[in-house]
Structure formats: C-alpha cells, structure tokens
Specification:
Elements lengths: L1 E4 L3 H12 L4 E4 L7 H11 L8 H6 L28 E4 L35 H15 L27 H12 L1 H6 L2 E5 L33 H8 L5 E4 L2 E9 L2 E8 L5 E6 L1 E4 L3 H12 L6 E5 L2 E8 L17 E7 L3 E10 L3 H11 L6 H9 L2 E7 L8 E8 L4 E8 L3 H16 L1 H4 L1 E3 L5 E2 L8 E2 L25 E3 L14 H18 L1
Parallel strand pairs: 1-2, 1-9, 2-5, 3-16, 9-20
Antiparallel strand pairs: 4-12, 6-7, 7-8, 10-15, 10-19, 11-14, 11-17, 11-18, 12-13, 13-14, 15-16
Helix pairs in contact: 1-7, 1-13, 4-13, 9-10
Length: 527
C-alpha cells in the first residue's frame, strides 16, 4: 500500500501516476468541504442560465464583506483555508496560507497555467525534458484554454492541443491590439506577451459544465468550469486501486528500508490513527509538510528557509475608455500574460498578469468615486472603463526568503512553525524597477502604471511558496534527492512545492503537479 497525504494539486497527480501504474493507493486527507447549504445553492444555479438566476439565490453565496484577491472566498465560504485556531503556525511579517480542504487551495486558485522555461531550471538535478511527459499528462486533465502562434508559444509549449480560448474582455482586446502595434518597441526592451492560458472548461468534454461567461470567476464559478484538484479526485475515486479517507490529519511519519508508518489523528474525535505501508508521498503543502518533517526528525529549533516569489499588485489606467464594461460579463480571471527579461532587474524573467473589469474591482472604484461627491457616478464610469490591475511575480532568487523555525507543541507532540520575514528591501527595489520600466512604456502598453498605488505583497502573499527541502544531486540533511526523499526518511517522498530548488516567476502550480507526477512515477520504478 502507498499512502498519499493531501488532496491538493500535487497529491491528486501523484496518486494518478500510482494508480495508473497498478499500485494500491490510499489518500489521507483532512478533507474539509464547502458548507452543504451553499453547495445546494450552487447546484440550483448551475441548472439555470445566468440570465435566469434569482437574486435571492445569488445572495446566499455572496461573501459577508467584499474581499480582495489576497483572500478570495469560494461561494462566500472560507472553507478552502485552514482555521487560524487550528494552524500550527505563527507568522511575523509574513502572509502564508494553509488549506485543509478537499482539493486544497485549488478551490480558490487563479487557474493561470504556464510551464517553467528550460533556462529557469538551470542548476536543477532534473531537466526540463525530464518533466515534459509529465507536463503532458497533467495537461490531459487540466484542459488548458489558450491561443496558438503567439509570443508565448515560442517560449512555453502547450504539450497538448489547447482548448478554445475564452473570449477576451473588450478592455483586454484593446490593450493586446495596442501592444501588438508596438511589438517591436516592446520586444527590443525585453517584453513578451499574449493572451492568458487558463485551466477552464471552454468546450464540452463530458466532464461538467462549460464556461458560461458569468463574470463570477473570483467568487466561485456556479458551473464549476474552473479546474480544481477535486476534478481529478473524483476521477480517482472511480478507480479500483484508489481509496480516499478523509477526516485524518497526519502529524509525523517514520520509515526504514522495510516500510513506512504514519501517525495522525481523527479530526472529528481526536483519536490517534496509525497507518502502515510500503511508501508514503507527502503532498500537504510546504508548511504542513515542513511541520511533519520537523516532528518526524525531532529537529526542533533548527531554522529552515522557505522560498517565495515576491508579489505585487499595480493599478493601471488604460488610455482608452471602454463604455459599459459592467454589462459585458467577461471572465474575471487573468486576461493577458506579460513577461519581462531585463538583467538590471533579475537574471530571470518577471511574470505579469493583467486583469480587467470584475465585480471586486468595481466595488473598490465605486468606493473611491465617493470622493467626487455629486459627480461620483460620472467619475466611476470614467474609471471603470479604463481600470486595470496588474499582478506581478519575481523569481524567488530576488528575495531573501522566510525563516521557518519548528517548535515542539508539548500538548500535541507535533511541530509548530514560527515564520519570520527577512528584510524585503532588495525585493521592493526590484519591484520598483519593474514598475518604472512599465511607466517608460506607457505609450507602448496603452496604459499608465499608477505607481503611488503600488502595493507590495508581504512575504508569502500570493501563496507561491516552496523550496524548503530542495532537490539536489547530493542532498544534505534538509535537502531531498530527485525522488523527493530526505536522507533520514527513506520511502517517504515529498511531492509538493517543498522540493522545488527555486521558484521561477511564471505560474508554478503546473510545474508542481508535473513534478509530483514524475516523482510518483519514479517511486514505482524503484519498487
């Protein structure tokens, strides 16, 4: 028996590789789910066309207060996030998230999908070519929607033919056309760009509803057209080699050359639970995995280093005002991807995502427009049709990382993590260089970066974190081999973002899933 701990993106693809190789797999998971009454409301909405949605049903899944993209709710629920009182974690200047949900944080992810560049994997103990077949298998289940023959495809292959791209908003179309007119000027200064690639069901594949352009992507799609790890989990549950066991939280593990033992508790009763098997794959997310490793090795007080991608949000104003954007109802996920190569910023590319009108943005603009008094409606219309948000990520090498100190919880016998932010001056300086570069290209981009309203994310914000037990050719005590194993824990394989040697700026969940599939496939070959 192989155990997979966690049902997020890395867990489901690790389990998929195992069951397809003929291995018996049990997935252990806390498995928190959205409240049943909210799901019943979603199911009722999914039986109707968007035009027929009753206001009283929509009101049942609205969040109590509008929230920003940094803490996105799903159907008005925060079930995707671990309860603060239950998290064995204290944060000091950081903003990292954990999930105990079925499907993990894929319940609230942005569905943006790009593989890593081969150049960004220089120095890794595995090659880009070794990941290629696993990118391909993951793409079978993601169903990536996008366009062909743009700047992006020359750098980032699809691995499988893409689904039909969702329709761009009129704001994004105008911006993309403007950048294409100025392509030569942008390319000469290191820019590349194209329509976003999204894990969204835009064509009927028999597995669920397709995107109906409701514009509710950030609140939770009532048609569940945005991919989540739960989609693969449901596929796995139909497989005879697979068992899903929820209500279990693993706290530590032990192993030798003969097998593994996992120690946890039942979340409903608190009763201890022990599982024995041949191998275990930890896919709990970097923080939960670090807690398990520290408790298993008894390495309390030994500081670790968590890597993160420096993150920022930048409001922008387009040169052209698009009227009636609130009536258009486009998708609310990333519309465009923009990359920047500039050695004065970083030896690695910077990744930018452009968002246009959405309901959350509208709420903030309407609040700001109140300053205009009797002209507030006019001001809101002028801003709404021009307002953009650019979300940016830098390579983890642009930041000093987060100190993680495991501390023993005497009451539970498990590890509690203390996260402490390091200095952010260098990352902030590099972000300002990115924004300055965007300002220089205002005419080419067709939009003005509003630098005074730039918001730097706290370390870990955006939840692109990992690399705490990086893969190495010759791993030391807190490093892993190419199979995600620590020297002192044979037959235990870390398969989540914990093992990435570093975090390139491009969207990283696709690579995390592909690498988990690769590690799981390799463990079968080792048997």
């Amino acid at each position: 028996m192989y155990y997979v701990v966690g049902s997020g993106p890395s867990g489901v693809f690790a389990a998929l590789a195992l069951v397809e190789a003929g291995v018996q797999v049990t997935m252990l998971d806390v498995g928190r789910q959205c409240e049943p009454d909210r799901l019943r409301t979603v199911e009722a909405l999914a039986r109707l066309s968007p035009e027929a949605w009753p206001d009283e049903l929509l009101a049942r899944i609205e969040p109590p207060n509008r929230v920003g993209v940094e803490r996105k709710l799903c159907y008005g629920s925060d079930f995707a996030y671990a309860d603060d009182a239950q998290i064995p974690l204290s944060q000091h200047g950081t903003s990292c998230l954990q999930s105990y949900a079925r499907g993990g944080l894929s319940n609230v992810w942005g569905a943006a999908v790009l593989p890593f560049l081969a150049e960004d994997m220089a120095g890794w103990p595995i090659t880009h070519d070794e990941l290629a077949p696993h990118y391909r298998r993951v793409a079978d289940f993601l169903g990536i929607a996008g366009v062909r023959d743009d700047d992006l495809e020359g750098l980032f292959p699809y691995y499988q033919p893409p689904r039909k791209a969702p329709r761009l908003s009129r704001q994004a179309r105008w911006l993309l056309d403007r950048m294409r007119l100025r392509r030569d000027q942008l390319r000469s200064d290191g820019f590349y760009f194209g329509q976003s690639r999204l894990a969204v069901r835009t064509e009927d594949d028999g597995s669920g509803h397709v995107c109906r352009k409701t514009g509710r992507c950030l609140e939770g799609c009532p048609y569940m057209a945005i991919w989540s790890a739960g989609d693969v989990l449901r596929h796995l549950q139909r497989h005879p080699n697979f068992t899903y066991l929820d209500g279990v939280q693993i706290g530590r593990v032990a192993s030798d050359q003969n097998g593994v033992r996992l120690y946890g508790r039942r979340t409903d009763t608190g009763e201890p639970a022990v599982f024995e098997g041949e191998r275990a794959l930890l896919a709990c997310g970097p923080l939960a995995t670090a807690s398990i490793v520290a408790a298993s090795l008894g390495s309390y007080g030994v500081p670790l280093r968590l890597q993160y991608q420096p993150y920022f949000l930048l409001p922008m104003l387009a040169a052209h005002n698009i009227p009636d954007v609130d009536r258009e109802r486009p998708h609310a996920l990333a519309q465009l991807f923009v990359g920047v190569r500039d050695d004065s910023i970083s030896p690695h590319p910077v990744h930018l995502q452009v968002y246009t009108y959405n309901s959350l943005l509208r709420t903030r603009i309407e609040q700001a427009a109140r300053l205009f008094g009797p002209w507030r409606e006019w001001a809101a219309r002028q801003i709404l049709g021009r307002a953009l948000i650019m979300q940016g990520y830098l390579h983890s090498g642009c930041a000093d990382g987060i100190d993680v100190v495991p501390e023993q919880d005497i009451k539970t016998g498990t590890a509690r993590l203390r996260l402490v932010a390091r200095r952010q001056a260098r990352a902030r300086q590099l972000v300002r260089r990115v924004v300055t570069k965007l300002v220089r290209h205002t005419r080419d981009m067709g939009a003005l970066a509003l630098m005074p309203w730039l918001r730097h994310g706290l370390p870990g914000e955006g939840n692109h974190i990992g690399g705490i037990f990086p893969m190495r050719e010759r791993p030391s005590r807190f490093e892993t081999d190419v199979c995600g194993s620590l020297p002192e824990l044979p037959r235990i394989h870390l398969v989540d973002a914990s093992v990435l040697p570093d975090l390139p700026a491009t969207t990283f969940t696709y690579t995390v899933m592909a690498n988990a599939h690769r590690i799981a496939t390799t463990t079968v070959d080792m048997a």
